[in-house]
Amino acid sequence: MHSESGITLLYQSFMGFPVDEDLVSGLLAALNQFTVAEFKQGLESIEMAGLRWVYLEDKESKLLFIAADTKDVTSAMLKARLNVIKQSFLHQYVKDAKEWHNKWNGNVEGYREFKKTIEEYYTQWKQAEDVTTIAEFFDILGVFQQILNLLMNVIDGHVSEKQKGTIFTQLRTMFTNYKNHQYVKNDPELSKISFNQTTGFNIISINPNNCDMMVVEKQIITIMKVVVDIIKGNIGPRDSISFFMEENIFDYIASNFKILNELNLAEFFLRLFLLM
Cβ(52)–Cβ(67) under 8 Å? Predict the structure, then answer.
């Protein structure tokens, strides 16, 4: 919704009961405006009508994003999912805040199509809840952590000092961009992913109880792709595959193939390391 006018750009409910969206939106906007006036900051989370509500504001575009779910869903997870929707909406409609302000005239019809995007995310999250347990999530973290460790061994033990310097510079740049992304800054668990030239990557300090596991997995997959691309780009695909073999990356994948297959990661890793 537009935070200043209170106009609802988009409303989507999966709760299964009739709600007057204008009434609800007006109430939520009023609560946020009250806290801004009284406490100089907007709402972050409230519990009301048996539900947990979270707020995310984008001040540049003057948009307010609000989500609600049952109280068994943590505020952190609900906020992580809302942030995915927020970033997707901003990317699609508000690439330039000033330009968006000039176009904004209160007409909300152009945003209805975004409901399909929300529905796609919602379906993915529900599917993830059905198949992803905390134990599986720790398995995923363990697999990625071990392979990232092996990739550090490739860099430390198989490339020239000049290539190593270039690779580490690119990795630091990649990771700085990752940490500076607003999406990561807004998610405490994603912010726990760290990289150091000496100690390498650390992804196992993430708390699955405080995050959207699917979102975290996607971010780690993206990081893994970039790391492998940087290595291949500096030492060449053929030499990279040879060094991957020397550091037993393929042996690790083979010995853990069953669990990787159960986690739907086997094909991803084979393509990642074998394709030129």
Answer: no
Q: What are the extents of the domains in the chain?
A: 21-131, 134-274
Lowest-confidence pick of 11-15, 59-63, 158-162, 265-269: 11-15
Tell me how far CA of residue 17 lies from CA of 20, 64, 114, in angstroms.
10, 23, 21
| pLDDT single digits (tens) 94-132 | 888 888 888 888 888 889 899 999 998 888 777 666 555
Surface-to-core class of residue 38, CB atoms within 10 Å of its CB (0-12 exposed, 13-18 middle, 19+ buried): exposed
Cα-Cα-Cα-Cα dihedral of 153, 159, 163, 168, to 10°? 10
Query: Does pTM top 0.70 for this prediction?
Result: no
Q: Name the architecture of domain 21-131.
A: 2-Layer Sandwich (3.30)
Distance CA 138, CA 211 (A): 13
Residue type, 64: L
